[in-house]
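Extended Data, panel c. Modelled sequence:
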Amino acid sequence: MTRRILIAGIGNIFLGDDAFGVETARELLRQPLPEGVRVVDFGIRSYDLAYAMMEGNDATILVDATARGQEPGTVYLIEPDLNEMGRLEVGAVNAHSINPVGVLQMVRSLGGGLGRLYLVGCEPAVLETENGEMGLSAVVQAAVPRAIEMIRSLVIELARESKEHGLVEAQL
């Protein structure tokens, strides 16, 4: 049996570096992927993401702009504590924006299991532009290849764990 991994690019293309997850997903879609790995550009479609997360994935990798107070372009790999996230207060899920915590709560409220969850994030430089310009800042655009390598390494590690548990190994 092959491990099922969902890589979810999320963000708003009209808000500068908030499109980091979307752009990273688009780049990943141009590359060969191992069996069982699915990349989807969800943009701001929170309901679609929630339903995709309920499809029996062994792991979900969210890719998003993630402000943590570091230098713009810093790439993070985070394995969130799902128990802690369940206690966070979140407003109603909005069909025109995406809130990962709200999506996770929606999945749980619908009776879905989450499997393992990871976040590959990038510290944004610009989240809104005065002229409504689309596109990533140069420093965040330069972080996309680093994020892809981080995702590839994570997929290889998850495949290695699968092999140890008798599942088919994925090759990148």
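Helices lie at 20-29, 46-53, 82-85, 100-109, 138-141, 144-164. This feature is highlighted in the accompanying rendering.
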